[in-house]
Design goal:
single chain; about 300 residues; Neuraminidase; eight-stranded mixed sheet; four-stranded antiparallel sheet; 3 helices; globular; binds calcium ion
Length: about 300
């Protein structure tokens, strides 16, 4: 073997080691995040820490009673990519529409609806809300964008190509998160209760209380339908609950505190508050209030 061949063999070994090491660190990171979620997320919503052995009991039909079921699973995640995000954006809602990305931002006098260039971190077009409206959740219904407001009791409907407001509808109470899916429009108001609106007349047709092992999960905020479940960001935390739309039971938890804490200079208010799911790639795009980055992630089942 000549010297070049020896060098290539040597290089390949180094490369293999690097790949193996990267894989190890990625797995270690995922495991750490999962361990954090195991402890942090239900407690962020006021639950007691999980009792030692509770999971094992619940998974054993002979020992565990049906009252212990179902115990949510805990998701790990993998970061696929990172993109720039406007640190001036007090993110309240995020949604994809035909591959395009739209964001709703809040704060009195600063609220907006924007279409973004994800790769460049650039605002492609935006409309500003009046100083009397605080922007909240955002979704797509029948090819139109629907944006909630916090305290105005009004949702605005926009044409996505022009961001021209074409209609609006009223609702009672506060508006926090909104998502459309399964022929329904589901709305959160910061409590543990989700409201389902008729998509024609926007009357409330159903209410659903979200629970984890009978404990009500208050603070439900940004919402997203994905893979038949409702995902809700729990304010003021970096936790996301996966919810059964039929029963309201929490099926899983994802803790993105690791992403929040990896960004310097964030205030306590700068929690996770934007989730958009791409059903084709099964990737999530997440960000938070005034975060400098978007993160494209995939979820990993761990239990
Ligand atoms: Ca969303």
């Amino acid at each position: 073997m000549d010297s070049i061949g020896s060098f290539c063999l040597f290089s390949n070994k180094i490369w293999c080691c690097l790949v193996l090491l990267c894989g190890f660190f990625e797995k270690a990171t995922a495991a750490t995040e999962t361990a954090a979620a195991y402890a942090a997320c239900p407690q962020a919503s006021g639950m007691q820490p999980e009792v030692k052995g509770e999971r094992a009991l619940a998974s054993n039909d002979k020992l565990g009673g049906p009252e212990l079921k179902p115990i949510p699973q805990y998701y790990g995640y993998r970061v696929i990519a990172r993109y720039p995000h406007d640190v001036g954006a007090f993110t309240e809602g995020l949604t994809f529409y035909n591959g395009r990305l739209f964001e709703s931002t809040g704060q009195w006098g600063q609220s907006s609806l924007r279409e973004l260039d994800l790769q460049q971190g650039r605002i492609k077009q935006q409309v500003k809300l009046s100083r009397y409206d605080f922007g909240e959740g955002l979704t797509v219904l029948n090819n139109y964008l629907v944006q909630l407001t916090w305290k105005s009791g009004e949702a605005f409907i926009y044409q996505p190509d022009t961001l021209k407001q074409v209609s609006q509808f009223g609702y009672e109470g506060e508006g926090w998160g909104v998502a459309a899916g399964n022929g329904q429009l589901v709305v959160s108001n910061g409590s543990a209760q989700l409201q389902f609106f008729d998509t024609e007349n926007f009357n409330v047709v159903r209410r659903l209380t979200v629970t984890d092992r009978k404990h009500e999960i208050a603070g439900l905020n940004e919402l997203e339908f994905a893979e038949g479940a409702i995902f809700a960001n729990v304010w003021p935390s970096n936790c996301i609950a996966e919810i059964d739309p039929a029963t309201g039971q929490v099926l899983g938890w994802l803790d993105l505190a690791g992403l929040a804490h990896s960004q310097k200079g964030l205030s306590e208010m700068s929690v996770l508050n934007g989730m958009a799911y791409n059903a084709e790639t099964k990737h999530w795009l997440v960000t938070g209030k005034n975060w400098p980055y978007f993160y494209e992630i995939t979820l990993q089942r761990t239990y």
